[in-house]
Amino acid sequence: MEFFQYANQEMMVSMLGVLDDFERALKEIAKNGNPADLQGVELIYQKFKNKLTEKGLKTMEVKAGDSFDVDFHEAITQIPAPSEDLKGKIVDVIETGYTLNDKVIRFAKVVTGN
Hints:
- The structure is a single chain.
- Helix 1 (2-32) runs antiparallel to helix 2 (35-54).
- The chain is built from 2 helices and 6 strands.
- By secondary structure, the chain is of the alpha+beta class.
- The strands form 2 sheets. A 3-stranded antiparallel sheet has the order 1-4-5. Strands 2-6-3 form a 3-stranded mixed sheet, with no helix packed on it.
- Belongs to the GrpE family.
- It holds the Pfam family GrpE.
């Protein structure tokens, strides 16, 4: 059984880049494309993401202002905190993190304030 879980994890990790590409495409189409294209790509993205979710993939909910947690976040850089309340907190999320069956398979890449 462990072999199948590992194989599933490997496949899921390889699909994360595709999810990232979809998210970048959606942002770009929202800025420069037409609404019909955006709707079509969103539909495909949601179907794909739902299939991965059915297999146990979960998106980490991380946003600016959250406390930095080394168990879930990877700080790729630190910047001067834009406000006092953001010192030691997440200022920006650069890359989405994911868990598979409650195990981190990709840490959220974040910028922290100092």
